[in-house]
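Bit of a strange request maybe. I'm writing a small parser for structure token strings and I need a real example to test against, not something I typed by hand. Could someone generate the tokens for this chain?
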Amino acid sequence: MKVIGITGPTGAGKTTALNALRELGVEVIDADVVYHQLLAESEELKAALEATFGDIILGDCGQVDRRALAQAVYPDRLPELNAITHPFVVDEVEYQIARAEEKGYPGVAIDAIALVESGLARRCDAVVAVLAPKEERIRRIMARDGIDEDYARRRVEAQQSDDFYRAHADYVLENGEGDTSEGFAFRARTLFEALLKQVDAPLT
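Reply from user aminoacidic:
Good idea to test on real output. This should exercise your parser:
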């Protein structure tokens, strides 16, 4: 079973690429969803976060309050948060990969903006970065999320550069200004079909 990592900055087109993988019968694991589930359900993670950031991160019901956690973390303590949460996320993703293999899926895609930083890239047979020009990404997330240009620009500029993603990817899917959604989806599907048929692992 192939494990394909999908990464890249917000607004680049990862959702379209992931939909192409789903059409090929691949199980998609969203690392962000895994993280939020762990915040809600893992007592061990909650204890580790509370020990580091204090009980100000807890809501009235004693659960982790995501907004309070964000206020405690940003702008200076993100490395501390990642050091705590990444191992929990990696363990859960590994569990879900094993479940997908038991169920006979032809492949698993790990959707993670921090695929490289978390160490999940090392688990992948191939890492695919989805990239798009910065100004195009800003326009897309303004339309998608209903936010103003200033906030969209700050979100985009806070993320890793295209050079970072290129340096850590085996393949790059470019989703430029002139691309249609259909055309990009077709190119993504073509790449993923080829990756799923390959028998060598890991790919380089």
